TrEMBL record, chain A:
Name used for this protein in its record: Skp1-related protein
Pfam families: Skp1, Skp1_POZ
Keyword line: Ubl conjugation pathway
Matches recorded under Gene3D superfamilies: Potassium Channel Kv1.1, Chain A
Organism whose genome encodes this protein: Ramazzottius varieornatus (Water bear)
Family from the record: Belongs to the SKP1 family.
Domain of life: Eukaryota
GO terms for biological process, alphabetical: protein ubiquitination; ubiquitin-dependent protein catabolic process
Region entry Disordered, spans: 167-191
Annotated pathway: Protein modification; protein ubiquitination
Chain's gene name: RvY_11636
SKP1 component dimerisation domain location: 133-180
UniProtKB/TrEMBL annotation, chain B:
Lineage, broadest ranks: Eukaryota, Metazoa, Ecdysozoa, Tardigrada, Eutardigrada
Domain of life where this protein originates: Eukaryota
Designated gene of the protein: RvY_12532-1
UniProt-listed InterPro entries: F-box-like_dom_sf, F-box_dom
UniProt domain F-box: residue ranges: 33-79
Protein name as it appears in the record: F-box domain-containing protein
């Protein structure tokens, strides 16, 4: 295995600290600053279980469900936020819901997630596996923002979803929510 | 996939840290193929939770699976969130915290109507007056005489309240008049009080009692019989007292629904609450909405009371859910404004509150213009 990357190159992380090695599904090894690594609650948990003794040796934390190509992308996010976010306690599920529901997506994250939807979904899955709630929430909100701009028909087409309602059923649902059936504009979205 | 990434246009303004994503994103786009429906269900639910309710309800039409998911899970998630969050916020506006000031009118702002909700009368402060009644009286005694401001309040509506006769008589003696409206409320009195009531109350000035003239009062004797009262029944009550000992019990006078409110006032009740939101009034609002918009919602209220939001959402008409949420949001905006009185004037919500969105307290404390915060989805 080769060490593929090091977060020490990040401009935003001033203090060199403990280095954490993790390996991806393909076995590629990444060396991360401790602060960057611990943004993943999974890695944080493993480190705590190990008594944080692995930093000085060659032990590598296996992230068996994360592919290298996605991990590289997530690493960019981790580095940036490790340098720019305030220290905060991990959010409880309820807090995460509130944050997801109420907060706008910061500009940097918008640009970071300005990618193909399939990529967003893969990031979402990896963030879930790594237990990076904030990133997962950002992905959810990004996808939600895309859905909001689409008509029902566009969504069906986009995701290959079959309309399994009878015309009567669909009409009934349409009547129920007629007051909110102002279809969104078909232009103006990046997605 | 439909998403496009026009990196060429953005290249000149690539933010710090994203330059290395350019090739990365291009490679990822080539190989990524996962679709939304391939994700585990809870991901889809989390995503749908991020969509405001009216738009979410629109998506029920996508397919039967989405309809079920949105109705039974996502919608209840919204409602559950709102209720949880609102209850948390209501704690910050406990009347007791403000009682010492006896200045409830500060919340009225420029409003002319104040609504009191009384879901569980608390007589701990006064054996005669429940908590809202006590506060209302204190406010008047403490301020009405000294401050002209009070005069902007020309109507006080009690909802779901049990008012004591003593309270009403106190109100009648106040130098500054306002119209007191009882909506779905009761007047508690002893028979002896009833005698005094009929004999000494200056009927001509009983503004709140005008519906009497139109037979809109009912008297409940114990739990058995109901009578419809008119002003002509004053004598009837007296004579019944002498001739029927069953009246030696607590009587409740119930004002019929909405009879003392105009139709528009009834419709505006959920809006008027922003004048003075009272803790735990959600049940009333919900009941009101259900009765008005979804009389066939059956056990919705019971599910709500039991905290089973999944079933609640499943049987509730979507319009009721949205209106409930609209109400919650209205209250939230009011509370946010209220809490934000001490907010820094330097705050520019569209920037600081968004850029520091990770700060949990930021959006809660910020008043701003409302642009960056919880939106009111139904207008």
């Amino acid at each position: 295995m080769s060490t593929a990357a090091s977060s020490s190159t990040s401009e935003t992380i001033a203090e060199p600290g403990l280095k954490i090695k993790v390996s991806t599904k393909e076995g590629e090894v990444f060396e991360l600053d401790e602060k960057v690594a611990k943004m993943s609650q999974v890695i944080r948990g493993i480190l705590e279980d190990l008594g944080e003794q692995n930093g000085g040796d060659d032990s590598v934390l296996p992230l068996t469900q994360v592919e290298t190509r996605i991990f590289r992308k997530i690493l960019v996010w981790l580095k940036y936020h490790a340098g720019h976010d305030k220290e905060e306690a991990p959010k409880a599920e309820e807090d995460e819901i509130i944050a997801r529901f109420c907060e706008e997506i910061p500009e940097w994250d918008q640009k970071f997630l300005n990618v193909d939807q399939a990529v967003i979904l893969e990031i979402m899955l990896a963030a879930d596996y790594l237990d990076i709630k904030k990133l997962r929430g950002l992905c959810c909100k990004t996808v939600a923002n895309i859905l909001k701009t689409k008509t029902v028909e566009q969504i069906r087409e986009m995701y290959g979803i079959e309309n399994d309602f009878t015309p009567e059923e669909e009409e009934e649902i349409r009547k129920q929510t007629a007051w909110c059936e102002d279809e969104p504009p078909r232009q103006g979205s990046n997605h | 996939m439909d998403a496009t990434l026009n990196k060429a246009d953005d290249k000149m303004a690539i933010p710090v840290g994203l330059a290395e994503c350019f090739d990365m994103d291009r490679d990822l786009s080539r190989v990524a193929s996962i679709k939304l429906n391939d994700l585990p269900m809870h991901f889809i639910q989390k995503t749908l939770h991020c969509i405001d309710l009216p738009k979410l309800l629109r998506l029920r039409r996508v397919c039967s699976q989405w309809r079920t998911m949105i109705t039974t899970s996502a919608v209840s998630g919204h409602i559950g969130f709102d209720i949880t969050e609102m209850r948390k916020r209501f704690k910050t506006l406990e009347l007791k915290e403000h009682l010492v000031k006896y200045n409830i009118w500060q919340y009225a702002a420029a409003a002319s109507t104040i609504v009191f909700y009384e879901s569980a009368p608390d007589y701990s402060l006064s054996p005669l007056f429940s908590y809202p009644q006590h506060v209302l009286l204190c406010a008047f005694v403490g301020q009405a005489i000294n401050e002209d401001r009070t005069r902007i309040v020309n109507k006080v509506i009690f909802v779901n309240a049990v008012l004591s006769m003593e309270f009403l008589l106190e109100i009648l003696q106040l130098p500054i008049k306002f119209q007191l409206v009882l909506y779905r409320s009761s007047i508690k009195m002893w028979t002896a009080d009833l005698i005094d009531f009929t004999e000494h109350v200056p009927w001509d000035h009983f503004e709140w009692n005008e519906p009497l003239e139109e037979s809109t009062l009912s008297v409940k004797l114990g739990s058995d019989d109901w009578f419809t009262l008119t002003s002509s029944h004053r004598h009837f009550i007296n004579t019944q007292k002498d001739g029927n000992r069953t009246l030696d019990r607590v009587l409740q006078v119930i004002i019929d629904n909405a009879s003392s409110l105009t139709e528009k006032e009834v419709q505006d009740l959920d809006v008027a609450v922003k004048d003075f939101p009272y803790p735990d009034d959600l049940l009333y609002i919900l009941e009101y909405l259900l009765q008005r918009y979804a009389p066939k919602s059956g056990q919705a209220l019971e599910y709500y009371i039991m905290g089973d939001f999944d079933k609640f959402a499943a049987v509730c008409h979507p319009l009721t859910l949205v209106l409930l949420r609209h109400f919650l949001r209205t209250v939230e905006q009011f509370l946010t404004q209220h809490e934000g009185d001490s907010h820094s004037e330097d705050c520019c919500c569209s920037e600081c509150c968004v850029s520091q969105a990770d700060d949990d307290d930021k959006w809660e404390n910020c008043t701003g213009d409302g642009d960056s915060h919880g939106d009111v989805d139904v207008t």
